[in-house]
Fold:
Amino acid sequence: MKAYQRKLDIKNGCVDLSHGSGGRAMAQLISGLFHEAFGNEWLARGNDQSAFEVGAGRMVMTTDGYVVSPLFFPGGNIGSLAVHGTVNDIAMAGAKPLYLSASFIIEEGFRFADLKMIAESMGQAARDAGVYIITGDTKVVERGKADGLFISTAGVGVVPDGLDLSAENARVGDRVLISGTLGDHGVAIMSRRQNLAFETEVISDSASLNDLVARMVEAGGRGIRLMRDPTRGGLAATLNEIAQQSDLGFRLQEEAIPVKPGVAAACELLGLDPLHVANEGKLVAIVAPEVANTVLAAMRAHPLGRDAADIGEAVADDHHFVQMATSFGGGRIVDWLSGEQLPRIC
Amino acid sequence: MKYADEFRDKEIALGLAKAIRAETHPEKPYRFMEFCGGHTHAISRYGLEDMLPKNVRMIHGPGCPVCVLPAGRIDMAIRLAERPDIILCVYGDLMRVPGSQGASLLKAKARGADIRMVYSTIDAVRIAEENPEREVVFFAIGFETTTPPTAVMIRLAEKKQLGNFSVFCNHVLTPPAMQNILESPDIRNIGRVEIDGFVGPAHVSTIIGTAPYEFFAEEFGKPVVISGFEPLDMMQAILMLVRQVNEHRHEVENQYRRAVTRDGNLRAKEEVSDIFELRDQFEWRGLGQVPYSGLKLKRAYAKYDAEIRFDMNELLVDDNPACECGAILRGVKKPVDCKLFGTVCTPETPMGSCMVSSEGACAAHWTYGRFRDYQQRRAS
Structure:
């Protein structure tokens, strides 16, 4: 006879230590909440791991932890972010993302209703990106030992034949393309921080970029040297990293860099530079000059690249400076962010 | 962005740059000190140096409150924060200011001191309300601009009858420091630099007005132009200074008329004088002890004065002897003249205070302008 088990009280219930104990309560949480939200044939088999076919070509693998605060923010939540971030890290290799893992560290007392909403967002984000969450893990820690919920995701993908995007590939004369406005995610998060709350219409740009990347690869092929998603540290950190890895410098035009008025205003108020603020749905592509216009056109034809822009070029520079002609008429360096601008942005 | 873009217009900037070039005499040096860190930051952030003729030199003054805070005051705060009953509330840019022997509030926090970053004085009052069993101390710092908010907070604490709230007061005054730069005898053999005029403070002047600089301009025969923090404000102020120098005038002129009046903010001044009084002297990093340049709480508000409440001892700490912050704050040396600049001293690991805040002369030059050093070296 099957033992009676009370259904999860999603509306009023919350996670307690038994949900991480390995017993029936945990099994119920996993099948009732996570499998429901992620729904796929691999999870349905209920193994501790999932097997999948390895196709031809090179695989890429990546992993990322998500500790964003607050968990819900304009334009998304920690669940959708945990899918977008990992999908994007795979996509930046020009790869097609295939499978993800998801591991949850939950603080006791966390509401089922919030967990369900987060899991459903993850499921939706995965379906939108065409990837499957095929394995996972759940741990519960005592109250005060985690701030609500931490998620860690890993992912694998496959790189199309002949493509080798890497940070040391930039060459002098290459163009710098970005896929849209900068700083949206960071400002959206800041606007909801308890001691900083301000009103803005800015919503996070959190999104999976793999489809945009596929269109760019079609258009630019091997002319695309490398791609990066400018998350923490913003565009400034990304370009400084590339400058060092490729042993060159960059020269940017401030006027060409798109920033939403709401983001510019918030940065002005808080004394931040939009070039240092995090993005979760934008990419930087360094491309050979001869394909720059083709790739840019392909980006602009995609909904996630409508505001794409050519913002500058790679130049020879032993000091690896990222320099910028300011829209005021002078010149300056775009340096790394020093110190911590805002902890727990993703 | 309205009210900002208008003051960053490239065409107008080019027009002003042209006027400055036309009106300066090529053989004559024009050495202007911008007092405020906000001006220093704007010069570097917008690349103003590229738009000025070579003989117009901007000297970065000591007007960055984080930069001039002596290491001893940081040590005092760390010692206080290490007490288990204390929550210390600070503005974020104070966290990395070096105390003695590499200590900082950031490191003290990592070791377990309860130090909280706040964005407003109101946050500190809220933390005091939420933690009635703990002592909450606000690390008050800044020039005349940030003193009124501290005064308002003390009023608020009084109204709410908060018994667990106090202020570690480090507020300083602008005019005595400007005077000190011009009149004091050489300190630590640093020497003095010739200054032909001052770009006067923006936000500070919204509070104190333009009148306090009149004596200064008259006594020292130096022109002062109060300027806003936007790049066009700066360009216009520089042009106004050039004209005064050319015409041998030394007046207080107000470029920042949209925000500054002659008398300033009377209400704010009243609040400040109700609660604070002058210290006989206060130590500034780089300037040493400057008479009547700092504020403390009046005796009637002693219970809100952390220095009295917790019997804090004044600590005097020598700066790193190789650090040139003192000379840089006085305009005698440039950041690149310091051996530590860009080697062991960077914004990540600041040795001196000028490298800490983005308004500090060294940090601004490092972050935005250091490519010019290589350009100049190559050119020579």
